[in-house]
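Changelog excerpt

This revision adds worked examples to the README so contributors can see how folded entries look when concatenated. The first example is reproduced verbatim below.
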Amino acid sequence: MNDYLKGKVLWITGASSGIGKGLALELNKIGGCTLILSARRSELLEELAQQCTQVKAHILPLDLEDYGKASQWTEEALKFAGRIDVLINNAGIGQLGNSLDTLDEVEEKIMRINYFGNVALAKAVVRKMMEQGGGQIVVISSVLGQFSQPRLATYAASKHALYGYYEGFREEVRKKGIKVQIVSPGFINTEVTLNSLKGDGTKLMKNSPAQEKGMRTDVFARKLIKVMQSGREHAYIGGLEIMAAYFKRWFPGLFYWLMRKFVFKT
């Protein structure tokens, strides 16, 4: 049993698929903890909970777009185990479309889920963590929180916003026993691109080759658990693509030249 996880209650949003599901299954292998699994699709959460036979697993369906209920969801989560030690704020939605063709309501939807819902839940949970004497918030952002690409402007904006918010929020709650970590995945083999919204709000229904060739979710989960245990304030997890974030920081001129020549072709 992992001593870090022993007896802890971990709440995972976006748990019905992708990174969230992979993390739940990996935590189940380790055992010793209690899981609260959240996403919109209750039937998928039920299936996942049934697979988690080595831990106590509870389901709490929710839709982050309806973030005004964040305090209510938190109260419901507390009924399962009486405390929340770690919130893995993972739920989100992708977007792919030219900015001028993207409807305002689609941009607003992306921000409600990826930013406002994420933040509202963290605030509600942190208030309870402060009462219990501490806790940990793990925010799943993206390498695109450090730069952007054509047709991904809205998605990248929502991930940039998480950086801006949580880097300040971390310092506000640090002395109150709350750890805040931002984790930025690269290409992970999930259905996030498949379920991304086009400019008119319909689903893309097509995965990207980069996503399909990305890191497996079980591999990502094992790396994420190590990051969580380390307490590092920020970490990239992925393949060579995560080097783009460092390259852009240190060699911005060369970064944009290379990206326009080989990647930013529209």
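The second example, added in the same revision:
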Amino acid sequence: MSTISIVGAGNVARGIATRALAAGYEVELLVRNEEQGRALAGELGGNVSVAGIGAEVAGDIVAIAVPWSAVAGIVSAFGGFAGKTVVDATNPLNADFTGLDTDADTSGAEEIAKLAPQAKVVKAFNTVFAGNVVAGEKNGEALDLLVAADDAEAKAAVVAFAEKAGFRVIDTGALSQARTMEALAWLHMQLQFTRGTNFASAITIVD
């Protein structure tokens, strides 16, 4: 595998693409606005291609890096990403940004798995702020990347990519752990306002 496909052209997409390029991967940006995609590709430099929503996906791993409200339409447009390993980098925030848009007995990642039964869904990148992902470190230390999945092969592929990209990967277990990861990400977002950290802090497990 040499290509990482990313749906989106925002900050999360920029972060994942930056780390993929630094690790020697080619990057494919799958975007609704191809002008915006080409602008990001130009800023990223390196081997970056741009294609529209619904195009054939080049990478075996495809990261979803769009707002939660767009996810269902994206999955449908790509035919459920059949045969792909799908990295869910989203957080399922509700429309007024007052909490999560999922019930307690599910998660955004599990809902994507229902929408894409022929794909292998891995939850990752949702607990690390995009600016830190672009930087690739925090205070000189590797970033902790929490990962959850049911499919062992898909999880191993994402772990291998993330480790090559410079993260310290922490396997949290089954895909149902995405519920905890999404709740943790929401808490971390709220703490930005009470602690004044401007979305620059990082969640770290101290061993």
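Reviewer comment on example two: Strands lie at 3-7, 26-31, 48-52, 61-64, 85-88, 120-123, 144-149, 168-173. The chain has a mean pLDDT of 97.
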